[in-house]
Amino acid sequence: MAKKAVTKKAAKKAASKTTVKKAPAKKAVKKAAAKQAAPAAPVKAGPAKKVEQTSAIARVDVGFGNNLFIRGEGPGLSWDKGVLMENVSPYEWTWKTTRAKSDIEFKFLINDEQWADGDNLTVSPGGASISTPSFS
Q: Is residue 83 within 8 Å of 77, Cβ to Cβ?
């Protein structure tokens, strides 16, 4: 009988050594409803600032190979050095700005050398001055 007791003990020992560890019990996880991000509140930016474009347009043929310049008093202009105007067609030149805060006084020049005849011209912010300058 002693043999049986030893066998039972040995069996218990062997069983205890080969016990499989149980994985920890899974916690019951409640799936929370996916939180939807609240729509962002619209940004109130007040009335959109309208960018006013101020233009000086000269309708004149300055001759092949010549350019028309503008000098004056206003944003980007100087009475000392002219700004090349954009040639938009054979007989039309334009200068534009969006930075005018007050009236702009100006005059046209061929090749930044020959001044247009007559008085200086003026354009208000957001306005357009269309003229046909003459040169002597």
A: yes
8: in domain: no
Residue 119 lies in a domain: yes
Total residues belonging to the chain: 136
Nearest C-alpha neighbor of 116 from the set 55, 64, 59, 74: 59
Q: Residue 13: inside a domain, yes or no?
A: no
Return d(Cα 129, Cα 131) in angstroms, integer: 6
Residues 59-115: tens digit of each pLDDT:
999 999 999 999 999 999 999 999 999 999 999 999 999 999 999 999 999 999 999
80 found inside a domain: yes
